[in-house]
Amino acid sequence: MKLTLNLSRWLCCIPLLLALGSPAFATGPLNPIGGVRFEPQLQLAGQSLLLNGTGLRAVLWLKGYAAGLYLGQRAANADAVVAQAGAKRLQLRLLMDVPADEFIKAFHQGVERNNPPEVRASLAERAARFDALLHPLGEIHKGDAVNLDFVPGQGLLFWYNGRQLGPAIPGEDFYGALLRVFVGEHVSDERLRAGLLGKPG
Q: Of the residues 44, 94, 186, 187, which has the fewest C-beta atoms closer than 10 A?
């Protein structure tokens, strides 16, 4: 029997199962996590990116997703991550099936926690465009890969299993707000944030 958990309590855009659970686990940037190995470096928009850190979101013995953050230069706090110029990638590797609507809900809740009202107002139209990319998916499945890329001059590119969904959503501010859902000051999962920032879990 599959149970769906409301992810309003949790960081980032992917829900897990069950109402009780253990905290996330973090690992060093070069190690496999949750059975997933992230490449230590990659090329994006003509720039070489390094794996800054990885984290696993899990509940008891159930694993929800593994995440990896790629930057041009490694950074250990949210302000440095957001302010860093150049291309960036946040990669999510799904370890169970989750509804796309839960992804959307968690995104909005994370943005609300980590941004003042005036900033949220400036993001509203683009956040609706982000929702429109996700909603038609219905469900995101175990084994799926989501790349949330920032490309200078274009903005956020949403890649789902190697296929770009819709046009770019412009603005460094929008991508920064997305990153703060995962690594900002007011996250629900401190250990996952620590992992993505390359710190011990």
A: 186
Neighbours of 8 (CB within 10 A): 14
Which two structure tokens, joined as six digits, stand for 163?
């296929």
CA–CA dist 127, 141 (Å, integer)? 23
Domain 21-196 fold? Chalcone isomerase (3.50.70)
**Can you state the angle between helices 117-134 and 100-114, rounded to 10 degrees?**
170
Angle CA 148–91–161, to nearest 5: 80
- CA 57/CA 68 separation, integer angstroms: 12
Sequential pLDDT tens for the chain (201 residues)? 333 333 333 334 333 333 223 344 444 454 678 789 999 999 999 999 999 999 887 656 667 789 999 999 999 999 999 999 999 999 999 998 989 998 899 899 999 999 899 999 999 999 999 999 999 999 999 999 999 999 999 999 999 999 999 999 999 999 999 999 999 988 767 778 899 999 875
Q: What is the pLDDT of residues 42-52, one digit of tens each?
A: 999 999 999 99
What does the domain layout of the chain look like in residue ranges? Answer: 21-196
Q: H or E segment at 120?
A: helix 117-134
DSSP classification of residue 36: B
Tally Cβ neighbours within 10 Å of residue 65: 28
